[in-house]
Amino acid sequence: MYSKILIFFILLSCLGQMAQAQQEVQFSQYVFNGLAVNPAYAGYRGDTYLGASFRKQWTSLPGAPQTGAVSIDGAPSWANDETVGLGAQVLWDKQGPQEYLSFTGSYAYRIRLDEEVSRLCLGIGASLSQYAVKGDMISVLDENDPNVPVGKVSAFQPDASFGVYYYNPRFYAGVSVMQLFTRELNNKIIIAGVDKEFLTIRKTKHMYFTAGGLLNLSGDVKLKPSIMIKDDFNGPTSLDFNLFALLSEKLWIGGSYRTAVNIWDHNNLKSGLTKTNAASAMIEYFATDRLRIGYAYDVMTNRLSGYQGGSHEISIGFLIPNRKMKERIISPRYF
Which H or E run contains 90? Predict the structure, then answer.
């Protein structure tokens, strides 16, 4: 048990050195629901979409991260020509004694560019987050240590996000900045305890760039390559390569590879840092025209991969039609 705890903290330490403040929660299956990384994605499907995800990381280690999310988005029927997209998401994340809970609302203005289905979407999001530390979960040598909070202490933080998203039937691209005001409003989240201030999670801005396309290989097989670049302007830039195949309009199968890249200089980083690499295998099955179920398995491809036990992620989504069936058949949503 003690060896596993030690390995868990080594993992956190390594990620802290290589990613610095990159603590924005991320699901592997964002490739199937872009609302998680861009508020401008709200309403992309036109119909109302209900989604839920649960992720458990490093399953062999105690106190490892667990994350859950529930979301809804769509283009309301009262909006002329689906020019408005609305979305909401509740996110919960737990890492050892630290907990994070947030509610985010998203609004997207969707500009039709042609008669096909090409749109340019501008999105904004507003959120309220609670950061907490459970002092009773921290093992200490001195039970009277004044640096450890008694019980659970928490603080609230408002924030905002902005994004741009373009798509047509064969291509998409988007850029977004999440947690826009965190650094300006409050660089450090301070939790007030008894005669003491406690520092918990610190969040910083995160920039995302996503792009991908759809290739018809045959009548029953479509290929969807995509990338995502993620940067918090402090740690190394994260780059995802994704490749999925759609079989008979029923089954998505594929994977992702994540690595660190140096797109521009980060003067605050030490030279010679080891890259954090990870690989994911994913599957998404359309049980019906409206119901889909997804699963992802992630593993770190470094020297600690044999100790962390991999990460599991499950998701479920349900589509509630707003549009006429004819419109959905003419312009199915693949992104």
Answer: strand 84-95
Residue 172 lies in a domain: yes
**Residue-level pLDDT at 154:** 79
Which among 187, 202, 127, 199 is positioned nearest to 158, based on CA atoms? 127
Residue from 50, 75, 77, 55 nearest 66 by CA: 55
Query: Within 13 Å and on the Cβ side, how many CA atoms surround 95?
Result: 14
Tokens at residue 106, please? Answer: 């998203």
Q: Do the Cβ atoms of 254 and 244 come closer than 8 Å? A: yes
Amino acid at 229: I
How far is residue 316's CA from residue 92's CA, in Å, rounded to a whole number?
A: 17
Structural domain span for residue 150:
2-330
User: Model confidence over 4-55: pLDDT tens digits?
Assistant: 433 343 344 444 433 333 456 779 999 999 999 999 999 999 899 999 999 9
Query: How many domains are contained in the chain?
Result: 1
Give me the count of residues in the chain: 335
Tell me if 335 is assigned to some domain.
no
Please write the tens of the pLDDT for every residue from 58-92.
776 777 889 999 999 999 888 777 899 999 999 99
